[in-house]
């Protein structure tokens, strides 16, 4: 039987593609990962990884072992979730992952109210643009702006976040659309739907600046840096901003709540889910 810790380090190498990446993910040093990988290969008497100058590539047998190890990991995580579901009701830590725009501008301002309702639940709010894995317990509950497709999860659509173009009320080119300059994300966000929407509207017109979070876009637009694509609930609530370009193509993103089925009925997780559902569905800035 292979040592589970060795398998865990091997899976980290398979996921990251490098020893250093695996070390960062596991919060250990490079030598530990190398030692664990070598130990697993010795246990199984096969070469699992081709060590290239700048990366690691799974061998054919290594890919088979990796796939089986992922299945084992999923089963182990399921056992842990079942055990967790039996814990004392309404006590413990619940991690909620949410897109930064919702974490900062919707959820954070209600944490005190949640605490007053559930003083024995420690709600950990993680503002994350990237999707986390519920099956690997990277979060207990997640809000997402794309329809979840994870197996073993329960998902519910809570609403729709609509976007528009906004500029400062006294933006110098407000009445001259051909002279607009735009506030966008950088190239690392090229695949993000709102970036594609904004760049499609901008066309050949210049990008004034690039910021990698929507709060930065809001602040830059408020400062008069250019035209930003913002959710209605943010732009309409800011007295310094006005919606412009009403004839531009519409754009919206769905808001989805997702939780692993094994945790769905855990009382503390249920409390967080109900609280989030109420916040989003009763929020005046989102459509159904």
UniProtKB/TrEMBL annotation:
The keyword Phosphoprotein is assigned to this record: no
Presence of keyword Transcription regulation: yes
InterPro entries (alphabetical): LysR-type_TF_proteobact-type, LysR_HTH_N, LysR_subst-bd, WH-like_DNA-bd_sf, WH_DNA-bd_sf
Pfam families: HTH_1, LysR_substrate
SUPFAM superfamilies named among the record's database cross-references: Periplasmic binding protein-like II, Winged helix' DNA-binding domain
One GO MF term attached to the UniProt entry: DNA-binding transcription factor activity
Domain of life: Bacteria
Positions in coiled-coil regions: none
Keywords associated with the record: DNA-binding, Transcription, Transcription regulation
Domain called HTH lysR-type: residue spans: 1-59
One Gene Ontology term from the biological process aspect of the record: DNA-templated transcription
Sequence similarity: Belongs to the LysR transcriptional regulatory family.
PANTHER family membership: HTH-TYPE TRANSCRIPTIONAL REGULATOR, TRANSCRIPTIONAL REGULATORY PROTEIN
Protein name: LysR family transcriptional regulator
Organism for this UniProt entry: Phyllobacterium phragmitis
């Amino acid at each position: 039987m292979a040592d589970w810790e060795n398998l865990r380090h091997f899976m980290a190498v398979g996921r990251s593609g490098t020893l250093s990446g695996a070390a960062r993910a596991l919060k250990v040093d490079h030598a530990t990962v190398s030692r664990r990988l070598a130990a697993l290969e010795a246990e199984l008497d096969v070469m699992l990884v081709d060590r290239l100058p700048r990366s690691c590539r799974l061998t054919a047998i290594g890919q088979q072992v990796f796939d089986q190890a992922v299945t084992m990991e999923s089963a182990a995580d399921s056992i842990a979730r079942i055990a967790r579901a039996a814990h004392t009701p309404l006590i413990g830590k619940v991690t909620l992952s949410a897109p930064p725009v919702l974490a900062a501008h919707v959820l954070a301002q209600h944490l005190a109210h949640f605490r007053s309702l559930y003083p024995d639940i420690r709600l950990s709010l993680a503002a994350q643009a990237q999707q986390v894995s519920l099956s690997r317990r990277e979060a207990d509950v997640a809000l997402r702006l794309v329809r979840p497709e994870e197996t073993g999860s329960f998902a519910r659509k809570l609403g729709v976040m609509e976007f528009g173009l906004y500029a400062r009320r006294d933006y110098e080119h407000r009445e001259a659309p051909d002279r607009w300059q735009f506030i966008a994300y950088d190239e690392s966000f090229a695949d993000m739907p709102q970036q594609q929407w904004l760049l499609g509207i901008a066309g050949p017109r210049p990008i004034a600046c690039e910021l990698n979070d929507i709060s930065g876009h809001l602040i830059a637009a408020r400062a008069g840096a250019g035209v930003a694509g913002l959710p209605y609930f943010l732009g309409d609530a800011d007295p310094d901003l006005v919606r412009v370009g009403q004839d531009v193509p519409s754009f919206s993103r769905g808001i989805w709540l997702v939780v692993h089925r094994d945790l769905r009925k855990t009382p503390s997780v249920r409390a967080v889910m109900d609280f989030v559902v109420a916040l989003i569905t009763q929020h005046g800035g989102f459509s159904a």
